[in-house]
């Protein structure tokens, strides 16, 4: 199968604290991969390593390799800016910029050099459609994004991530701040998105992982305990810890 | 990629240079001032009255004037400032009047100091018929000027006393005032003192209000009591920068500035030492 | 509790309340005195003449009480100081909040605060004794008293105000907004300039206004360095920056130091300028407060 990310012996340290330890796995193209585990297990650190956002933390140290399309993202000649264009991200809390809806979506394309107004409009419309938000906002693109509901804001953030035309979209607990109805919309959207993109989603919600993902990785105290097809993980987990976690006995 | 990294770095350097720009410039100016003051600062300078002849001129009367005035400002502002802070924190919380007074205090803190000078002139000289330019009027005027700072600092100090201590005292049957006097005030005194000293060190550098209340620009004898006319250090420095002879501008004025800054610096040092000393002793 | 100690307790509370209420009395006194004496002044000099007159000669015959030259003087200092303090203040705020390590910040911030703690008379001395002679090497036509060097020192002394309030506003911008910018592939300067600064804008604007308000009321530095020449200067003409001017505050000092009698119109004019000054700074502080409150509402 076609792996887009090939993670090899990846360790991340914050000062002398361990973020994740010796993780190796492959993320497959056009699949939804869920990363689960209790708080502080390193799942978020893992996600943020894939677009090198983890480097913004002071005193962070990274060992090992992450091959993206066969190229180690930590090589000296890799520009994190280009990497982040190709690997988009959606965050735990909806975080639209205090700008108009249009400007939010156009932000990424603009910084990557697209200036033509028509082209931008095209991208914005296309991205909002892919994020299933277009019909709700098409008449008020110039209004502030802060006026949208939480669920709409989160879909706007997805549109914003789509607009740079990435290959991968990382979701960091994207529904934890939303109500159930808004959450289910986002879940549908993630399944829809895997047709065009590779989706990696960190989630607290075990049921969510079961519902939407093709593959599931279970992290525990910074280590990757088990990684397999989602049905396999949920039906015949190999590791006892995994079983106890997904049945809600630990975590 | 390389060029973009350079522009990132240039932007950071720009922000860094902007941060140190004022600091570096001020340091350079201070070094020049100290250098020029060096030849003039001696015992004779500290103990002589001003004079037309630069080599005989000294700073004794305004120095004493400043010290007397500041002592008096401290005596006036502490009871009123601390009293107001106690009321606002312990008796008035949640009341509408407290809110009004607090907004009013923050407004007062932003009133230009020269306006306080006019206030002193109108209130103490015209209305209360005190003589203009005496130590008492100067002190009262500067008391009003620093009152907002003293109140806010005292409020913060009182607020930082843990509520548990108050409850413990009330629980032992103490009245509210007994609790304040025996528990709250002793624990907040270091904070209050620090705030008061910092406020006084601001007051000692003030010139404009003193001009407005008619403090003397040049005076040859030190004030005898609080009803004597007086001058203050910054007033004297102002006069020396205004004199035609070079020696005043590039000799006596720098020397006066060094004395003024030395006093302010020692007050700040005392405040810091006090705070650190008590912080070690009283740990919650 | 016996009646005597109850009584004592009441008296103490009354005293404390009086202390607090005294601050209201101060404000009322300021307004009453400024208004009362100004009314006397305006009974001699019409407000129209005062606010639109272009000559200020309160102690030289023919007496004239046009405040415009003084307002222009104050405006020059304010603009000049703003041109220095606003960019320097906001860049400092960016450095302190986005780049400096905790240790560097703990060293630089108190040093920056010192700039605001130096007595203004000392700044006046710096400008007159050192900065003007230095500038004179660049601009030979420069007068000993001039608006430029006064603006420079006033600008320096208000940098900490702009910097510290802007920094608070910048720090209040949620971290997740910055991360969203980075995740879209923006570089640090761009994240700062297109996301962080716009998000903190009202706090930053509030800091500008507060700094400007300080510059308007600043007295000794401008009296010493800019001189006492009431003049209807042209703010856009660089030559006018090389010459002596007079600000509202400097005019007050000048009258305060002269031996005019308490009954003269010149003496009363002191209060009319004071009232104008008070109104200007009060308005600026209020606007700054309102802008800042608006910014607090955006993120919660």
CATH class of the largest domain in chain B: Mainly Alpha
Mass-distribution shape of chain B? globular
In the CATH hierarchy, what is the architecture of the largest domain in chain B at level 2? Orthogonal Bundle
What is the second-level CATH architecture of the domain at 3-97 and 167-246 in chain A? 3-Layer(aba) Sandwich
| Residue share in helix of chain B | over 70%
What is the β-strand count of chain A? Answer: 10
Radius of gyration of chain B: 23 Å
Q: Which sheet architecture does the biggest sheet of chain A show?
A: 6 strands, mixed
Distance between the termini of chain A: 32 Å
Major sheet description of chain B: none
Average pLDDT, all residues of chain B: 91
Fold-level CATH name of the domain at 3-97 and 167-246 in chain A:
Rossmann fold
N-to-C order of helices and strands of chain A = EEEHEEHEHHHHEHEHEEHH
How does the helix and strand content of chain A classify structurally? alpha/beta
Helix-residue proportion of chain A: 25-40%
What class do helices, strands and sheet pairing of chain B give? mainly alpha
Give Rg of chain A in angstroms: 18 Å
List the chains of the largest interface with their residue counts.
B-C, 81 and 83 residues
Q: What is the CATH C-level name of the domain at 3-97 and 167-246 in chain A?
A: Alpha Beta
Would you kindly provide a written description of the structure presented here, covering whatever features stand out?
The complex is a heterotrimer of chains A (251), B (284) and C (300). Helices cover 36% and strands 27% of the residues of chain A. By secondary structure, chain A is an alpha/beta fold. The longest helix of chain A has 14 residues. The two termini of chain A are 32 Å apart. In chain A, 45% of the residues are buried. The mean pLDDT of chain A is 93. The longest helix of chain B is centred in the N-terminal third of the chain and has 36 residues. Chain B starts with a helix and ends with a helix. By secondary structure, chain C is mainly alpha-helical. Chain C has two domains: 42 residues; 247 residues, MetI-like (MetI-like fold, Orthogonal Bundle), CATH 1.10.3720.10. In chain C, β1 and β2 form a beta hairpin. In chain C, α5 runs parallel beside α10, α6 packs antiparallel against α9 and α7 packs antiparallel against α8. At the B-C interface, α1, α3, α4, α5 and α6 of B face α1, α3, α4, α5 and α6 of C.
């Amino acid at each position: 199968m076609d792996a887009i990310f090939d993670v090899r012996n990846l360790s991340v340290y914050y000062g002398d604290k361990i973020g994740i330890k010796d993780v190796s796995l492959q993320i497959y193209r056009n699949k939804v991969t869920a990363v689960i585990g209790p708080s502080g297990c390193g799942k978020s650190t893992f996600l943020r390593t894939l677009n090198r956002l983890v480097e913004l933390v002071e005193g962070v140290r990274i060992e090992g390799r992450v091959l993206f399309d066969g190229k180690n993202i930590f090589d000296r000649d890799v520009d994190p800016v280009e990497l982040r264009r190709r690997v988009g991200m959606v965050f735990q809390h909806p975080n639209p910029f205090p700008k108009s809806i249009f400007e939010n979506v156009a932000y990424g394309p603009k910084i990557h050099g697209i200036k033509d107004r028509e082209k931008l409009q095209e991208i914005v419309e296309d991205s909002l459609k892919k994020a299933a938000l277009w019909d709700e906002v098409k008449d008020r693109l110039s209004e502030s994004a802060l006026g949208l509901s939480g669920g709409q804001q989160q879909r706007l953030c997805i549109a914003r991530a789509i607009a740079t035309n990435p290959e991968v979209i990382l979701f960091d607990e994207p529904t934890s701040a939303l109500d159930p109805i808004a959450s289910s919309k986002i879940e549908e959207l993630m399944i829809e998105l895997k047709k065009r993109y590779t989706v990696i989603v960190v989630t607290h919600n075990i049921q969510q992982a079961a519902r939407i993902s093709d593959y599931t990785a279970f992290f525990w105290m910074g280590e990757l305990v088990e990684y397999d097809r989602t049905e396999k993980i949920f039906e015949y987990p190999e590791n006892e810890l995994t079983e106890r976690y997904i049945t809600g006995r630990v975590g | 990629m390389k060029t973009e990294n350079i522009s990132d770095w240039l932007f950071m350097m720009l922000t860094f240079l902007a941060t140190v720009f004022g600091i570096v410039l001020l340091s350079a100016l201070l070094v020049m001032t100290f250098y020029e003051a060096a030849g003039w600062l001696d015992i004779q300078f500290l103990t002589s009255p001003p004079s037309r002849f630069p080599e005989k001129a000294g700073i004794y009367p305004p120095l004493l004037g400043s010290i007397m005035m500041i002592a008096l400002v401290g005596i006036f502002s502490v009871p009123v400032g601390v009293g107001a802070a106690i009321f606002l924190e312990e008796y008035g919380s949640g009341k509408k009047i407290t809110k009004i007074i607090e907004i009013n205090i923050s407004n007062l803190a932003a009133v230009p100091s020269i306006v306080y000078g006019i206030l002193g002139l109108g209130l103490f000289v015209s209305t209360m018929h005190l003589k203009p330019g005496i130590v008492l009027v100067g002190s009262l005027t500067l008391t009003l000027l620093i009152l907002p700072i003293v109140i806010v600092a005292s409020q913060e100090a009182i607020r930082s006393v843990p509520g548990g201590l108050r409850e413990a005292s009330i629980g032992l049957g103490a009245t509210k005032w007994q609790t304040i006097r025996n528990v709250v005030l002793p624990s907040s005194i270091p904070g209050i003192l620090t705030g008061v000293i910092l406020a006084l060190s601001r007051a000692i550098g003030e010139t404009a209000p003193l001009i407005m209340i008619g403090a003397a620009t040049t005076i040859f004898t030190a004030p005898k009591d609080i009803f004597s006319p007086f001058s203050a250090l910054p007033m004297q420095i102002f006069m020396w920068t205004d004199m035609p002879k070079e020696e005043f501008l590039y000799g006596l004025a720098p020397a006066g500035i060094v004395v003024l800054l030395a006093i302010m610096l020692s007050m700040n040092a005392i405040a810091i030492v006090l705070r650190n000393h008590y912080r070690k002793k009283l740990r919650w | 509790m016996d009646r005597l100690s109850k009584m004592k307790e009441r008296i103490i509370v009354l005293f404390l309340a009086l202390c607090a209420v005294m601050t209201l009395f101060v404000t009322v006194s300021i307004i009453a005195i400024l208004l009362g004496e100004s009314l006397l002044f305006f009974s001699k000099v019409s407000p129209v003449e005062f606010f639109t007159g272009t000559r200020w000669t309160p102690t030289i015959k023919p007496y004239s009480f046009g405040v415009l030259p003084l307002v222009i003087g104050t405006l020059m200092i304010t603009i000049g100081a703003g041109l220095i303090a606003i960019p320097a203040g906001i860049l400092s705020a960016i450095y302190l909040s986005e780049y400096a390590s905790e240790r560097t910040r703990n060293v630089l911030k108190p040093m920056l605060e010192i700039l605001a703690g130096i007595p203004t008379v000392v700044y006046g001395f710096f400008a007159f004794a050192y900065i003007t002679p230095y500038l004179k090497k660049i601009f030979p036509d420069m007068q000993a008293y001039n608006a430029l060097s006064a603006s420079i020192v006033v600008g320096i002394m208000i940098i900490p105000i702009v910097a510290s309030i802007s920094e608070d506003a910048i720090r209040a911008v949620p971290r997740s907004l910055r991360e969203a910018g980075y995740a879209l592939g923006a570089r640090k300067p761009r994240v700062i300039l297109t996301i962080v600064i716009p998000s903190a804008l009202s706090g930053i604007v509030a800091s500008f206004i507060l700094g400007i308000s300080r510059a308007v009321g600043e007295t000794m530095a401008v009296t010493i360095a800019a001189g006492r020449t009431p003049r209807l200067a042209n703010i856009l003409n660089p030559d006018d920056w090389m010459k002596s001017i007079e600000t509202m505050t400097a005019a007050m000092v000048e009258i305060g130091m002269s031996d005019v009698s308490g009954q003269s119109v010149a003496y009363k004019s002191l209060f009319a300028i004071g009232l104008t000054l008070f109104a200007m700074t009060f308005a600026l502080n209020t606007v700054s407060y309102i802008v800042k409150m608006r910014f607090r509402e955006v993120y919660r």
